[in-house]
Design the sequence.
């Protein structure tokens, strides 16, 4: 029964932690811009406020699809989040679980008959495909190099990327993936506020928006934690140290891959993004596979 | 030499009767001054002749050779007839077709020509029968002249410039041929002082140079008569110009006398040292003739010309079979002679019917003219010539291939297949044109009755292969080697099989359609139940296919009209055949039912004229596939001598079966048929093809892999190509502008996963089977959704669906579930199966393959959502809810199997036990993750999913109720989003199109192949210049070549 208790506990706590990280990221970004920024608890406050707002939807909304989209977004972020903090799960499985969240976004967008959301869905879909390429290469290369197919398989007392220097290649690919998957400038093309007014979420408000916010915060944290586990955290670390170390590494990773990136660049166009993600990661990935085959003989 | 018997003199009636008839017809006309007496006498004459011939055949089939001695002079001095199986059968055929043609001519030929026409026809019959039965070389020449000269006259029955020209050409070439024959005979007589064929056989060989020249002269002369390439240049003019009953006689029987002449020559020289080289000449000659004939027919616009060229090609097949001179080869040649005579006569008669009604021979001008008795008989004849069951052509063609393979190996067989594939294409295309929409045409009974009789004979022979075999090889001849009888359903399955077909017939009646469907589903379910009870791999496949077919039939209930009933009926029949494929214990029966199953699919396309051409292309491709399959079976038989499924253990046979099935599953670059087969089909048909037929292909691929030791590099190559197919088909699906296109390529992509999984083995094998199950369910379900869209909006083109295309919200919801499974979202079945395959690939070290498979999966997410996007339009109208029933069932299956796959694996593990395969997947291994292949941890996911659902519910409850009010946000622009100007779904992926547009070029290679084929066909057809000196040159060249080669 104890293990199930842990599941419930993590399910309840991790969304809150994820929102806190979201707040932390806003703080980082503000500091980079020379602002004081909101308190890191701001995302909690936003969430609570949004929950109290009345939801209003256009009259021809496909509610069934909207609700299933929201649920899928939520579950597609929460399940992998819990699993990476439990350090249980198959890498490919985790990847697919995260895809579920993306499909949720698309379903949400499709439930409105709005040009903005349609364009948003279109862009989101293409972005998803493009960065999934990099993600796929990264995971397969990782498995090929280390032979670990699951989080439980990982062993060793030093960070994996130190133990297997070749892991640099999947790591580079993963660094490509993070900003796109989290959806920040320069590749937040699906939800570009100033252009298409949040794309799929253009009509979302109130409690629905709260769900969207918490889901994207959880998605971000899950992804960061996955990268931390895969590359940086020594697999032998356990207990309290596991939590402390991984949360710190997550924060550092977040600072460099999200805050810095989104403050240092401006949004690129969708065709540029597609070209970028369809060329560079494939080349790196193909190179990685080649190296892998050469080394394995 | 057999003991002489004078008791067989009655057989000389074979000649006496028609000659007497020919004499009586003008006489009676002179006396009674009535032309009507001519057909009466003609029919009586041929009727009596037919009775005599049948009696002769009876004796001959009893194993006795009939000897008729002329004028009391003892052979070899005197002239004798020696009626063996060739002579007896050909005489019977001549009389049978002659009898029917005389009846047919009553309605066809103008009355003022009757006297001349019938009299000359009787002479022609006498001459032709004479050639067939005689045992004397000079006698043969005389009869040949008699037959030919009467044929020249008959060709120009309607004296018009074109027919006169044709007749003249025929005359010049025919005379040249007979002169050659005479010269050959003279040379032989000069050397060996005998004219008796059987006497000659004992003497010939003393003078090889002279023999060679003489034999070459004979062969060339007989080759002209037998329409062998390139001596057949008279044929494309003469056969079409003649009245259709005469065309039937000429193509059906008269060219066979050339063939029998060749047989006689071969009997004569079979003990000589150059016999083997002659056989080789015949093989090359036969194959060249068939390729040339088929390619010439390919681009014909004249229906009778097309059939004439086809005759030439068929002669090529027969000669190729003959060139083996083995018992099987001779049986095959005899059988095919019979089949071709009947079928081609029927085809010409059917064509005559249509020409008579439309007054044109142009194929386009005949569009839709097949809505008559002639259409049905045409289909029977064409199927028989193409060698498709349930017609006798299937058996004869198969036998030809076995014979040729046994004697000459694989290359000639491949060439024959190439030629036959061309034939299938043009006959199917002609079928599609003729059976296009049109008024029902009815002509006089004189014309329609003989056609119906001939059609019935062919159909009956198709169901009684033992009779065919008896005719071809005598009692007990090949019975031990050729298990023909096993094609008939037997045992417990027989009754439900026939009942399913009966239900199909019931569904044809519009008023009883629903009853028929319910009965069909019920009986089909019982068939499936019986299959499941019998266990093994077929049990699993039977269940999968039944789930697909049953859902399609139920969802289709809402369709209306006569058309849908026909489709349902065909679907049920196809399912019955499919089950018989699964139940087949031997490869021969398997091929038989496989072809039946595929053949039915062609007619499903024909129901809608606008899809007919897709059906033609699809079915041609499928025939090519079944030829590869057949090659495997033939090889297995030729190698091991048995047809059991385990014959695939012969590596070449197994490989061929595997390649054929990979073709069926659309392995790159053999996937081009998908555009026509899936995309061009009605969604219901495509659903059946994708959901059911591809599973049978999968099973056969699996069996081939299990039985045969496929070499590692071929396996690796196929895995790689499979992985490429996954991505390629995914790309095509994304780019498709049609819902059907999306599903078509999706189906190819998903089935490639299955193929790759089977090839990799290990846990990927388990994944492949589960994926097949999942695919049978979610892909069929999506095809049903496409069907609903088609039913509601009349189109599946995404651009045309803009602003509409909505389906009932429940259906939409279920479609999303199926799409999620397609995209492989956990915990649905699509994920588990793909995940197992990734694990298998990674364990086996196929990292690149794993990457490609995952990319394919990401693609499936894109095209799946694109599919769903098209369904989000406004939904109006109450129809389209019955499909919710199967869709809900399918959604349940994808969910339940995604969470609890192990019962399936348990069952599958039992089924695969015979192959020594162990699936390492108990529930403990899967749920708790104790297998070596990673963790699925379904249990964890379910718990977490339930928790997130609860949490989400709490959030949702806390929210105040949503208010649906107002329009969507427009951002203060003037742009008012309406249904029509919402961003187009077709260009949703334009940046990707921008990046990947060049890929489309790669997929157009089949257009190039088609262009090259057409070019070559036109070039070859250019040989028929219409200029007589050219033709004479061909004859001389052929002569020189034969002499040179044999004497080399």
Sequence:
């Amino acid at each position: 029964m104890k293990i199930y208790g842990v599941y419930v506990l993590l399910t309840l706590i991790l969304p809150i932690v994820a929102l806190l990280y979201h707040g932390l990221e806003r703080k980082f970004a503000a500091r980079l811009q020379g602002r004081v920024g909101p308190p890191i608890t701001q995302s909690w406050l936003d969430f609570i406020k949004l929950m109290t707002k009345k939801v209003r939807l256009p009259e021809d909304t496909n509610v069934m699809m909207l609700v299933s989209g929201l649920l899928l977004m939520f579950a597609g972020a929460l399940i992998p989040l819990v699993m990476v903090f439990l350090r249980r799960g198959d890498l490919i499985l985790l990847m697919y679980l995260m895809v579920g969240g993306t499909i949720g976004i698309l379903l949400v967008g499709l439930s409105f008959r709005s040009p903005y959301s349609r364009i948003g869905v279109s862009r989101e879909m293409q972005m998803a495909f493009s960065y999934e390429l990099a993600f796929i290469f990264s995971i397969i290369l990782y498995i090929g190099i280390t032979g670990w197919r699951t989080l439980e398989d990982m062993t060793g007392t030093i960070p994996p990327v130190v133990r297997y220097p070749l892991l640099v290649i999947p790591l580079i690919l993963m660094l490509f993936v993070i900003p796109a998957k989290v959806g920040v400038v320069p590749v937040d093309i699906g939800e570009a506020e100033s252009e298409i007014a949040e794309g799929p979420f253009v009509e979302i408000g109130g409690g629905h928006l709260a769900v969207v916010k918490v889901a994207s915060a959880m998605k971000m944290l899950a992804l960061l934690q996955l990268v931390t586990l895969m590359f940086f955290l020594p697999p032998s670390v356990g207990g309290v140290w596991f939590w402390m170390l991984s949360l710190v590494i997550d924060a550092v990773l977040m600072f460099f891959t999200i805050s810095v990136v989104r403050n240092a660049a401006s949004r690129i166009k969708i065709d540029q993004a597609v070209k970028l993600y369809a060329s560079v990661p494939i080349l790196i990935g193909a190179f990685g596979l080649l190296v892998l085959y050469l080394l394995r003989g | 030499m057999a003991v002489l018997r004078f008791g067989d003199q009655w057989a000389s009636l074979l000649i006496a009767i028609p000659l007497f008839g020919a004499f009586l017809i003008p006489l009676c006309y002179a006396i009674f001054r009535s032309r009507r007496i001519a057909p009466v006498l003609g029919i009586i004459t041929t009727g009596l002749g037919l009775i005599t011939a049948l009696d002769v055949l009876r004796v001959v089939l009893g194993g006795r050779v009939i000897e008729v001695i002329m004028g009391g002079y003892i052979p070899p001095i005197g002239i004798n007839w020696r009626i063996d199986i060739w002579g007896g059968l050909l005489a019977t055929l001549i009389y049978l077709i002659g009898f029917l043609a005389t009846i047919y001519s009553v309605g066809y030929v103008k009355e003022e020509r009757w006297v001349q026409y019938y009299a000359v026809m009787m002479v022609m019959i006498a001459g032709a029968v004479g050639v067939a039965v005689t045992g004397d070389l000079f006698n043969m020449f005389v009869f040949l002249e008699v037959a030919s000269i009467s044929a020249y006259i008959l060709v120009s029955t309607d004296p018009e410039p074109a027919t006169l020209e044709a007749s003249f050409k025929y005359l010049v070439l025919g005379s040249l041929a007979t002169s050659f024959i005479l010269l050959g005979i003279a040379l032989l007589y000069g050397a060996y002082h005998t004219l008796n064929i059987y006497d000659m056989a004992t003497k010939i060989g003393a003078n090889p140079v002279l023999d060679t020249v003489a034999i070459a002269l004979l062969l060339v002369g007989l080759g002209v008569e037998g329409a062998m390439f390139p001596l057949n240049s008279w044929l494309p003019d003469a056969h079409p110009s003649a009245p259709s009953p005469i065309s039937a006689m000429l193509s059906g029987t008269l060219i066979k006398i050339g063939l029998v002449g060749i047989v006689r020559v071969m009997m004569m020289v079979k003990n000589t040292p150059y016999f083997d080289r002659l056989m080789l000449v015949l093989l090359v000659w036969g194959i060249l003739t068939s390729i040339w004939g088929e390619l010439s027919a390919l681009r014909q616009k004249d229906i009778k010309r097309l059939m004439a060229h086809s005759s030439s090609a068929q002669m090529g097949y027969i000669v190729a079979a003959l060139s083996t001179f083995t018992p099987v080869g001779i049986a095959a040649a005899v059988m095919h002679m019979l089949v071709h005579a009947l079928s081609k006569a029927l085809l010409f008669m059917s064509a005559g019917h249509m020409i008579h009604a439309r007054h044109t021979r142009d194929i386009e001008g005949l569009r839709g003219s097949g809505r008559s008795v002639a259409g049905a008989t045409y289909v029977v004849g064409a199927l028989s010539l193409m060698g498709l069951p349930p017609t006798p052509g299937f058996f004869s063609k198969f036998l030809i291939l076995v014979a040729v393979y046994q004697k000459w190996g694989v290359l000639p067989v491949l060439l024959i297949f190439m030629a036959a594939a061309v034939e299938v294409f043009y006959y199917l295309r002609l079928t599609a044109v003729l059976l296009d929409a049109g008024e029902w045409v009815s002509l006089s009974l004189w014309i329609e009755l003989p056609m119906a009789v001939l059609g019935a004979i062919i159909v009956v022979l198709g169901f009684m292969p033992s009779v065919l075999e008896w005719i071809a090889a005598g009692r007990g001849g090949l019975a031990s080697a050729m298990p023909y009888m096993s094609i008939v359903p037997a045992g417990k399955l027989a009754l439900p099989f026939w009942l399913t077909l009966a239900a199909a017939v019931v569904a044809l009646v519009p008023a009883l359609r629903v009853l028929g469907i319910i009965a069909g589903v019920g009986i089909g379910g019982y068939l499936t139940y019986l299959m499941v009870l019998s266990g093994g791999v077929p049990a699993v496949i039977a269940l999968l296919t039944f789930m697909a077919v049953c859902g399609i039939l139920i969802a289709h209930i809402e369709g209306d009209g006569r058309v849908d009933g026909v489709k349902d009926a065909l679907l049920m029949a196809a399912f019955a055949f499919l089950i018989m494929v699964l139940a087949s214990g031997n490869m021969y029966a398997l091929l038989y039912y496989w072809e039946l199953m595929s053949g039915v699919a062609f007619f499903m396309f024909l129901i809608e004229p606008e899809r007919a051409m897709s059906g033609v292309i699809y079915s041609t491709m499928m025939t090519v596939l079944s030829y590869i399959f057949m090659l495997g079976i033939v090889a297995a038989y030729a190698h091991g001598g048995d047809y059991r499924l385990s014959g695939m253990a012969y590596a070449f046979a197994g490989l061929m079966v595997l390649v054929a099935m990979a073709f069926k599953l659309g392995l790159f670059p053999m996937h081009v048929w998908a555009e026509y087969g899936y995309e061009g089909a009605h969604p219901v048909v495509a659903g059946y093809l994708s959901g059911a037929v591809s599973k049978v292909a999968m099973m056969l691929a699996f069996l081939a892999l299990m039985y045969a030791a496929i070499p590692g590099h071929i396996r690796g190559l196929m895995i790689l190509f499979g992985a490429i197919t996954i991505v390629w088909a995914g790309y095509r699906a994304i780019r498709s502008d049609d819902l059907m296109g999306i599903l078509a390529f999706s189906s190819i992509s998903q089935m490639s996963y299955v193929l790759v999984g089977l090839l990799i083995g290990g846990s990927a094998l388990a994944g492949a089977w589960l994926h097949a199950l999942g695919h049978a369910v979610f892909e069929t379900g999506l095809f049903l959704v496409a069907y609903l869209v088609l039913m509601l909006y009349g189109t599946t083109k995404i651009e045309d669906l803009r602003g509409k295309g909505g389906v009932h919200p429940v259906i939409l919801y279920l479609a999303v579930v199926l799409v999620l499974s397609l995209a492989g979202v956990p915990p649905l079945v699509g994920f588990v199966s793909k995940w197992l395959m990734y694990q298998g690939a990674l364990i086996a070290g196929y990292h690149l393959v794993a990457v490609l498979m995952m990319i394919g999966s990401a693609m499936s997410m894109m095209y799946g959502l694109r599919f769903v996007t098209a369904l989000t339009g406004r939904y109006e109208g109450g129809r389209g809810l019955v499909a919710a029933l199967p869709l809900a069932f399918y959604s349940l299956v994808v969910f339940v199997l995604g969470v609890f796959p192990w019962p399936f694996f348990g069952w599958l593990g039992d089924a695969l036990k015979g192959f020594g395969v162990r699936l390492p997947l108990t529930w403990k291994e899967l749920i708790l993750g104790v297998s070596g292949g990673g963790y699925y941890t379904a249990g964890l996911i379910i718990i977490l999913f339930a928790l997130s659902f609860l949490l989400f519910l709490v959030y949702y409850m806390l929210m105040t109720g949503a208010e649906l009010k107002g329009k969507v946000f427009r951002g203060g622009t003037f742009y008012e989003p309406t249904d029509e100007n919402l961003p187009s779904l077709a260009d949703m992926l334009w940046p990707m199109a921008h990046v990947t547009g060049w890929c489309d070029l790669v997929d157009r290679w089949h257009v190039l192949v088609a262009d090259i084929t057409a070019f070559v066909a036109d070039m070859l057809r250019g040989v028929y210049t219409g200029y007589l000196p050219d033709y004479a040159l061909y004859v001389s060249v052929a002569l020189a070549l034969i002499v040179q080669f044999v004497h080399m």
Q: What stands out?
A: DSSP finds eleven helices and one strand in chain A. The CA atoms of residues 161 and 231 of chain A lie 5 Å apart. Chain A touches chain B through 89 residues (CB under 8 Å).
